[in-house]
Amino acid sequence: MTEELSKGYEPAEIEKRWYRYWQDQGVFRAACKEGDPRPTYVLPMPLPNVTGSLHMGHAMMCTIEDVLARAHRMMGFDTLYQPGTDHAGIATQVVVERQLKRDGVTRQELGREEFVRRVWSWKEACGSRIVEQQKVLGLSCDWDRSVFTMDAGYSRAVREAFVRLYHEGLIYRAKRLIYWDCAARTVLSNLEVNSEEENGELFEFAYPVEGGGEIVVATTRPETMLGDTAVAVHPDDERYTALHGKFVVHPFLERRIPIVTDAVLVDPKFGTGAVKVTPAHDFNDFETGRRHQLEMIEILDEEGRINDAGGSFRGLDRFEARKAVKRALEEKGLARGHKQHRLMIPRSERTGTVVEPMLSTQWFVKTEPLAKPALEAVREGRTVIIPEEWTKTYEHWMTNILDWCVSRQLWWGHRIPAFYCDACGHTMVRNVEALGECEACASVKVRQDEDVLDTWFSSALWPFATQGWPDKTPELLRYYPASDLETGYDILFFWVARMMMMGIHFMGEPPFKRILLHSLVVDETGKKMSKVVGNVIDPIDLIAGASFETVVEKALPGAPADEALKKFKKAYPSTASMGKGFDAYGTDALRFTLCSYSPQSKRIALSPKKIEGYRHFCNKIWNATRFALGYLEGARVTDAAPVVSSLENRWILSRLGVACGAAREGLAAFRFDDATSALYRFFWNELCDWYLELCKPIFASTNANSDANSDANSDANSDANSAKARRDETRDTLGYVLETTLRALHPFVPFITEELWQRLPRPAGVPSSIALAALPDAESGRADAEAEREMAILQAVIVAARTIRSEREVHPGAQVPLVLRGEANGSLRVCEAGRVAIETLVKTSSLVLEARGGERPRGAALGHAAELEVLVLLRGIVEAGKERDRIERELKKAQKSIEALEKKLASAGFTERAPPEVVQETHAELASHRARVTLLAEARVLAEEL
RNA sequence: AGGCGGGUAGCUCAGUGGUAGAGCGCUGGCCUUACAAGCCGGUGGUCGCAGGUUCAAGCCCUGUCCCGCCUACCA
After folding, report:
1. Could you give the domains of chain A?
2. Over chain A, what is the mean pLDDT?
């Protein structure tokens, strides 16, 4: 720890050390101590799937959350960042089944018990990967409280919730048309189904009409005609009036099918204007069937094969059946052509297979009574959604919510606690793992429902089931409701809305005070990340560094490397200038980058170049500290800002307060972009660019004066004393400012700040980790308007002089004579006080301060800073012609501004109706432009003698 | 089709009615004892388009054209 800092910032080396330290020190632990006077801050982590590995979305989410958690911890809250993982029913089952398939076994062959055992062992072996990655990101969760949704305690809570809802009449079992995943052989909720436009075919065929003639229908799913129980036409469609009330004959199944009229289903302008109706396999047809009391014929089994109802097509897979039906229709001369057709294909989010609408008996949650209070909680502001615009989306969904199908035909998950008696048919819903005998007839022929619950049902209980509910544990009392819930807007419905419903229902109050939503992380061109497009980035590659070969292999698995790389670079144009791959940017740089994006926009276009930029920022922090450490020996660093007298010290403390205040405001308003940019600008553009540069001559003066000390000269001694006093004050200020700034930065960049903070002089009695130190605020600085004003004058003078030097191509190392002319009691006094600063930062060979009015030195370039004239003597260095052109250009600019302002002031409307201070400001602005014109005219004269 | 966003510098994005900001890029000059992952300068905008309100519009209103996302869809 005491060894010197390396010249460059190397994140890998420092990051690995501190995470262990934090865990060993128990920094992340929530106290949950009786009598703890601290307020609580509770942040339930959106539980990642146990199957998952960390993607950019997680990185975004985790970063934002960890910033919130760390900031609140530093603000003195008893902070619980609640971690855990989700058993992810279908996703996990699919993964394990795939693995079994490689070994040539099916889960049916293994049996349920053995299969579930295998899933558990898979979970033990592989399920912690994402947790390890979260630790790489620096998450400050209380890992000791981590919960897995299949834990015994959590499972009990899930059963309890089901049982209570059932007895309250909010859960029911019914036969409904649902989405069926034929690959996973389970029902899906409509949120687990994604529809995308794909190429398809609109196939037309004729139904022979009883008594002669035919009616042509069109379909994208010809095989469903095996379940047709009607043909519908529009009642007003004159083409078909003659057929009303007649029947068609099914060509394969010897079934009479009625022709019905239906104005809802049929759009006469589409296709042939006649629609085949398959009530058991289509949502619109289902409703049509209800309207006309049509027979509902199911034609598919649970694997998507044609069942007995399909006659000779029985046993065919649905896609084979499609071909077979078309062929058979052609053979019978009933095919009437086909055309290309774009249509929305619904696919299972997990297995990717085309889902089929099927009739099925399932368990449903009655959502309306639950949604209403959840809606009201937001309307009444008991829960606030940020950014606020999402409130509308939430309302829209909550008011149009459908009953929620919660049963799944899976083996991995919480088994539905419903028991059926085969003897008397009695149904019992109890919070038990097994039930021995029937409560009605005492028969032992009792079997449990085979199905498990939707994963979202269990995760809907997250805010309270993690805290021991239904028991009234100390944790539950202290940590419910949570403070914030932070997540991607894409799961507002899936999860957030459901937690709201369940939280209010079971706990009587909403589960969180605020809902914070961040945007989707997309590629640099704005496209969604996907393995199809080949633009996925593994956050770990950005942290640890990776060659493009490695990166591209993950982005587009299985594709030729050069093709994949081309696609990848197209998705991330800023990587064009990056040679072999990503450097190791480090966790801190990635975190800072993610925080720098505004939460207002709906997409976050990830730019690797931007991450590189923030790594440079980390390097800047590193080196500034390295510089400072060379002078901080013996610094007295205090809790509060020191009282200081010199301008630069007063100024930096004032700016420090502004920056820390802005950072706090940004954190509070969920505007991390504002917070990070305030700290970035302060650190780089104020602390490094100005303050440290101003410190240099002060620290350098030490040596000069210690030489002077050896003289017996008393003046030199007193000079030396005052120089020492100033040096000490500056040393203490620098120490304080740096220590404070690191604390302000810590929530965003935890690793580098801990590393550097541990090396800095700190106030007495600080905690063992920066993570437990106090988060600075506006009061951590010392507001000083006068210092800011004076410093602004010095900065303006220095910049003006530098600009002249640079524009006239004076060599940066060359010393130039500088003359500043102004008001003796005004800015000149400030310049006199800041003489050393000006001399050093401008590099002057001589600095003359004089009152305005006298003769100006000939051959000088004339600039201005506030009301000061800045004269840089350049005789013999610069060509007169170039200088003249430059002055003309500036004159034109100034004239243009003057015209605009004069026009504005000439308008009576403006002078009479605009607020007086605005008019005044405009006058002042005009005056300053006019003064500038005068100055430029004079500069032209001076330039003639260059 | 409906709903919600967005269009500002070459790129990615901030912007609170009072003459437009950042980072990156571009560009000129510097290896200046913390940092070339750097320093000192500079260039760059008809704020999608057309109206309107206002003394004043990137910001408010209306229309319009593009681009996203979500929801529901035509069998």
Report:
1. 1-30+538-587+600-780 (1.10.730.10), 35-145+161-166+370-398+462-518 (3.40.50.620), 195-350 (3.90.740.10), 784-874 (3.30.2320), 879-946 (1.10.287.380)
2. 88
